[in-house]
Design brief:
284 residues, alpha+beta, seven-stranded antiparallel sheet, five-stranded antiparallel sheet, 7 helices, elongated
C-alpha cells in the first residue's frame, strides 16, 4: 500500500518497523499502527497549522510583523496582506514538514512494540527481602520457621508488547581478593534461577507492561553458622559447597532471556558472615 518514498522514510526507518512486523504484534496494535500509517499528511499539516495559528506566540509575532510593515509606510490593507502572507508561510511550512514529524512519531511508536526488558536491583525496593521460611523436618513435615534474607533482581517490560517465556540464569560469580581485584571462582556452569513467589518458579514467565517480576539470586537463612545458599530447587555441582566460605565481596552476573530479548545485570554483595549485615549494589 505504501512505499518508503511516499512515506518519506529511509532504509533505517523501514528497518525499525521490520523488527516487529517480522514478528507480529497483537492484532489491535497492528491495526493501530495501520491507522497511523493511513493518516493523510496534508490533513495533519493543516491541523498543525491551525494549532500554530491559534498560539498566542503566533499572534504576538503577527503584531510585531504588522508593526514593522507599518513603519515602512505601508497602508492598512497592505499591512493586512503582509500578515496573511506570514500566516500562509506558517501553513505551507507545517504541511511540508508533516511527513518528517509523522515519521519520527511512528519510529517511536514502533519501538514500543519491540520486546524489551530492563533488569534492576535496588536494595530498598525489593532487592533485599527478609522473610520467614518453613523448616522442613526429616520426614518432610514442617518443623517450624526461621528467618531468611533473599537477594533478588527485578525484571520490567519496557515495551507495550508482552515479553514471552522469560527465564533467569546465574552466569558468573567472582570474588574480591586481598588486592581488591575480582577473580574467578569455582562457579563454571550457568544455573537456572527461580522466579520469586511463583507456584512453578522454574517455569518460563511472561512479563507484561509495566509489571515488574522478581527472581531469587542467593539467600541466607538464620542458623548457628550463617551461610549463603543458592535458592531452593537450583541444581548445582557439589563443588559449590565451599564457594561462599570466604568473607569478602562477591560479584554475581545474571541473565534474563526470552522471545526476542537477552539482558544482563551484575551486582556486588558484601558478605561478612552475618545475615543482618548483607549489603548489595548494582554494578554500573
Amino acid at each position: 500500500m505504501f512505499s518508503k518514498a511516499s512515506l518519506g522514510w529511509g532504509n533505517s526507518d523501514a528497518s525499525v518497523l521490520s523488527l516487529f512486523i517480522a514478528k507480529p504484534a497483537k492484532v489491535e496494535e497492528m491495526e493501530d499502527l495501520q491507522r497511523q500509517l493511513s493518516q493523510n499528511f496534508f490533513s495533519r499539516g493543516c491541523w498543525d497549522s491551525l494549532v500554530r495559528l491559534g498560539s498566542p506566540w503566533f499572534w504576538v509575532a503577527e503584531l510585531i510583523w504588522g508593526g514593522l510593515l507599518s513603519e515602512q509606510g505601508l497602508g492598512p490593507w497592505e499591512v493586512v496582506a503582509g500578515m496573511f502572507i506570514l500566516a500562509g508561510v506558517v501553513l505551507v511550512a507545517a504541511i511540508a514538514t508533516a511527513p518528517i514529524r509523522q515519521r519520527d512519531d511512528l519510529r517511536k511508536y514502533a519501538k514500543t512494540l519491540i520486546p524489551e526488558v530492563e533488569l534492576e536491583f535496588i536494595q530498598g525496593r525489593g532487592g533485599i527481602v527478609e522473610t520467614p521460611i518453613k523448616v522442613i523436618g526429616p520426614v518432610g513435615n514442617v518443623a517450624g520457621e526461621q528467618e531468611a534474607t533473599y537477594i533478588r533482581v527485578g525484571v520490567t517490560a519496557c515495551s507495550r508488547k508482552t515479553v514471552h517465556n522469560c527465564e533467569p540464569y546465574l552466569c558468573k560469580i567472582e570474588k574480591k581478593n586481598s588486592n581488591g581485584e575480582f577473580t574467578e571462582t569455582k562457579f563454571i556452569d550457568p544455573i537456572k534461577l527461580p522466579w520469586s513467589l511463583a507456584p512453578q518458579p522454574f517455569e518460563p514467565k511472561n512479563i507484561y507492561y509495566p509489571m515488574r517480576r522478581f527472581f531469587d539470586v542467593i539467600y541466607c537463612k538464620e542458623t548457628t553458622k550463617e551461610k549463603l545458599f543458592f535458592p531452593d530447587g537450583v541444581v548445582h555441582g557439589l563443588t559449590m559447597r565451599t564457594l561462599f566460605d570466604d568473607h569478602t565481596t562477591y560479584r554475581f552476573m545474571v541473565l534474563v532471556v526470552g522471545e526476542g530479548v537477552s539482558e544482563t545485570l551484575s551486582l556486588d554483595l558484601d558478605w561478612d558472615g552475618k545475615r543482618k549485615n548483607m549489603i548489595a549494589d548494582e554494578v554500573k
